[in-house]
């Protein structure tokens, strides 16, 4: 779960700030660096898995394909 949260934060937000409270370390996202396209992909993935009951492999393939197409179209 820790790795999933880490990847989500670093995908949806372009910049995070490392914060430490004694033995506890966390990355706090900078809200102004929110990536709207990544946010839409997250919502699509959640809907695919929990509403449409698609599997992990299908969801990963679909979101990776959409993300790659978007990246190629924008650049």
From TrEMBL:
Keywords: Membrane, Transmembrane, Transmembrane helix. It comes from Tahibacter soli. This is Chromate transporter. The keyword Membrane applies. The chain crosses the membrane at residues 34-52.
């Amino acid at each position: 779960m820790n790795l999933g949260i880490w990847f989500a934060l670093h995908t949806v937000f372009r910049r995070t700030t490392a914060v430490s409270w004694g033995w506890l370390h966390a990355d706090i996202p900078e809200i102004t660096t929110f990536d709207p396209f990544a946010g839409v992909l997250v919502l699509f993935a959640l809907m695919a898995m929990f509403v449409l009951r698609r599997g992990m492999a299908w969801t990963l393939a679909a979101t990776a394909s959409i993300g790659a197409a978007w990246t190629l179209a924008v650049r």
